[in-house]
Design brief:
The chain is of the alpha+beta class and 295 residues long. The protein has two domains: 43-160, Protein Transport Mog1p, Chain A; 175-290, no CATH class. The chain has helices spanning 64-70, 97-108, 149-160, 191-195, 237-249, and strands at 43-44, 49-52, 72-82, 85-94, 120-123, 127-132, 135-140, 186-188, 214-222, 225-233, 256-260, 264-268, 274-280, 283-290. β6 and β7 (135-140) form a beta hairpin. The longest helix is centred in the last third of the chain and has 13 residues, at 237-249.
Length: 295
Amino acid sequence: MHKWITGMAAGAAAVLLLAASARSPAGEGGRGGGANPPPEGWTREERALRFIGKDLYGHIDGGAELFYEFGFRDLRVERFRRGEAELVLETYRMEGPEAALGIYLGACGGGAPIGPFAERSTGGKYQIAALQGDLFVQVNNHSGDESLLPAMAALAESAVEGTPAGNAGSLLDALPAENRVPGSERLVRGPYSLQAIYTLGDGDILRLAGRVFGVAADYLGGPDSAWTLVRIEYPAAAEALDAFAGLSRDLDPYLEPIRQDADRLLFRDYRGEYGEAHVADRTLEIALRLGEPPK
């Protein structure tokens, strides 16, 4: 048994189960496009399947848009069998480490690491997820048989082996560390990833255009309260100001503007909680779910 599996809590499953669909076989050999060796005692059920470009819509029933928003390149799906047991390995190659991190954080958050074989990893008896460079990897075990954890870990390790580590985690350095809720960190790159955090308005209201990455996290506001910060640094101050102007103009109708000036917008949502957007130079910061209006 892999040493990082020993003692793993059985209930630590991070469930993001994606339906499989037949596509063209993947070529043999080569990172991101070739087949992984089966764990000891296992056999490959069929050749690896590869999904490229818009093919992903045939594999994921809802949710493919998020992968495309972050920057999807291709997916390899492999099935392994030992007797009645089956494991499914999914290796997503994204356009860069930042894109892969965005998917990983959205799917897994800050779950407990399961091993040293990747930059980030988490999961349990139903699924293991791992991040390494531009790869986001999932190993699905639909049976939930905990005895398969070593084989799951071996598959994840095999999938990321040889992939250089990225430095995407440095994006999160833009978030204040004080009172930040561990595991709440997220990346945004367009309307789909933003929608998972908060509804500010229709479409690409923050003008991210699938090219600018924003960061977000929750913060403790008191013993029983938390608020959310979204922080985006644009390539130029004019772009940040344009995004702020668009947000002020096209704010969701369920959000009530309270006060606005040249660089600050205060609004209230239907729950009576407050939000504040502030632009300064190239940076747009949006505080959400505030119990009281900022002073």
